[in-house]
Each structure stands twice: as C-alpha cells, then as structure tokens.
C-alpha cells in the first residue's frame, strides 16, 4: 500500500515536472540557443531522479562512468522501463538526440518539447524509409557533436525477456563511422514496463567501453551490442 501511494505521488510530481520544464523549453527556450534547451531537458532528468529517490526510495549507481560519451557517439541501450528514458537525459551530456517513435511528438507539452530539440522521430511501419532517416539525420546530428541515443529493441522488454535487436542504430554506426557505446541496466526490476509501482532499491546501469565500428557490417555491430548487453543484464540483480 505504501509503495503504491509513494508511486502515485511520484507520478503526479513527474507530470508536473513535464508541464513545467516542457513549457520552459517551448517558450523561453525557443528564444535562446539550443544549448539552453538541452540544459533544461537535462535538468528535468536530474529533478526526476531526485524525486524518485525522495518519494520512492529508488536510487541508481553507474558502473563504468568513465565510459560515458564525452564527444559525439551512438549510445545503444537496453529498454526495460520508463526509468532509462528519464535517467539518460541526466546522466549523458546534454547535447543529445533520441531516435523515438513519432507518436510521442503528438503528446501535448511533452511532444512539443521533443520537437523543440533535434530528435529523430520515426514511423516504425515505414521500414527502409525509417532506417534511411535514421542514417541521414543521425549522421547530420553526430557531425554537430551530438550523442545519438537509441533503444535497439524498439520497445520496452520485461526483465528476463528479449526482443529482436533492430538494425537502424547499427547501420548509422556503419555508415557514419562514429563510436558505439552499449549500455545495460535492470530498471525493469524496480519500475515495470506497464506498472505504476516503483519499488525501492538501487538500479544498476552499466556503461560499456566505446568501440570503433570501422570495418564492421551493421549485422556484426548489432550482434556485438546484443551479446554485450544481454550478458551484462543477466549478471545484474533480478529482484527489488
């Protein structure tokens, strides 16, 4: 009962933070340089991590912090929960762009804020056109010094399960030549993909070493990332 109450309080606080920071990005932020919008988005992530800790007792620790991108790179991350969509905003340098489903852009305030930052919305039913957009737009943004973040599984996957890894991010790496950084975590153990409850505890986020995709095909990059992520996830705690 207490966990449910604390989780509801956080949910209310999260919605309020989206309204506050989202409106700041699409009003004041649009009058200022992109770097300001990036920092506002990063601040939103930090505030939410603090709210999770205070209201839900949900903390996190980073293994391999030294591997976090300092320059343009492609981050491929496990997708289990809503947590990582919030946390990576705070943990990774502010100059970041996400490959995300275009339906999110239609959400009031949140979608407006996403549109005010150079993200890459895609229609997942578009097939090769979506992949081409990832490669072309992703390369442009990498050349501007931004970090591209993608969840290769495409959607949230419950702990203990796995989905087929998409090739879009790997193809971007093959064509652009920018380094790839894999990330694994067990956030879904504490914040389930379709659940309101956030169980107290400590999420483990593991940041892998960047690797150069030169000479590798997209399929080889995908296999390398998948093998590393799934092996790391298997080693992390599977209970709150």
Features:
240 residues; alpha/beta; Glycerol-3-phosphate (1)-acyltransferase; 7-stranded mixed beta sheet; 7 strands; 46% helix
Give the % helix.
40-55%
How many domains make up the coordinates? 1
How does CATH name the architecture?
Answer: 3-Layer(aba) Sandwich
Give the class-level CATH name: Alpha Beta
Low-confidence stretches: none
Can you write the helix and strand succession as a string? Answer: HHEEHEHEHEHEHEH
* Amino-to-carboxy terminus distance: 16 Å
The helix count comes to 8
Shape: globular
| Strand residues, percent | 15-25%
The chain-level mean pLDDT equals 95
SSE blueprint:
Layout: H1 2-26, H2 34-56, E1 58-63, E2 74-77, H3 83-91, E3 96-101, H4 110-115, E4 120-122, H5 128-143, E5 147-150, H6 168-176, E6 180-185, H7 187-190, E7 201-207, H8 218-235
Helix pairs in contact: 1-2, 2-3, 5-6, 6-8
Could you characterize the architecture of this molecule?
Strand 3 (about 95-100), helix 4 and strand 4 (about 120) form a beta-alpha-beta unit. The protein starts with a helix and ends in a 5-residue tail after the last helix. By secondary structure, the chain is α/β, with parallel strands linked by helices. Helix content is about 45%, strand content about 15%.
